[in-house]
Amino acid sequence: MILKKHLWNQSLTYQKVDDNQRVIGYEADYETVKNQLLETLSKGHHIIIGYTMTDENRQINGGHEITITGSRVDDKGNLLFICNDTDDDDPRPIEYYASSLIPNIHHAGIPTEIADKTMQQTENWVLGLRDFNNSNQVA
């Protein structure tokens, strides 16, 4: 019997957030995230993302989840993502420029085969143990 490989998604976290809920960095660069999103869309899959809203100091003051359903390039060559927001009481899709959306993406559901070839994954229990050990160190 031949089993067809199933395309599983995994939730990738892109933003590094400190204990004070401030964005302090990223797990992947802009191009990597953009390429993961575009490749996922090219395979016919929608992408659920969670994004953060921050102030001028990168302090998170809110967040929201939406679904990316497509992409397009405008007449000036700028990439836009076509999204569905079920919380806005408007059935029409909305568009976000990639340049403003990608830096604010906290997490996204990306097919494992795409994630594995572009990002090194660490099991959650390893991250939890590291954070626990770091929080118990005396300076």
Q: Descriptors for this entry?
A:
single chain; 139 residues; alpha+beta; 6-stranded antiparallel sheet; two-stranded antiparallel sheet; disordered N terminus
Fold topology:
Layout: E1 9-13, E2 15-17, E3 23-26, H1 30-42, E4 47-54, E5 60-73, E6 79-84, E7 94-97, H2 98-101, E8 105-111, H3 112-118, H4 124-135
Antiparallel strand pairs: 1-8, 2-3, 4-5, 4-8, 5-6, 6-7
Give your account of this protein's structure.
It is a single chain. By secondary structure, this protein is of the alpha+beta class. It has one domain. It is 26% helix and 37% strand. It contains 4 helices and 8 strands. The strands form 2 sheets. A 6-stranded antiparallel beta sheet has the order 1-8-4-5-6-7. A hairpin with a 5-residue loop joins strand 5 and strand 6. The protein is globular.
What's the Cα radius of gyration? 17 Å
The average pLDDT value, as a whole number, equals 85
Count up the helices.
4
- Count of separate structural domains: 1
Helix content: 25-40%
Following the backbone from N to C, one meets helices and strands in this order, namely: EEEHEEEEHEHH
Class derived from helix and strand content: alpha+beta
> Span between N and C termini?
58 Å
- Uncertain runs are 1-6, 122-127
Count of DSSP strands: 8
Global morphology: globular
Largest sheet: 6 strands, antiparallel
Strand order of the largest sheet: 1-8-4-5-6-7
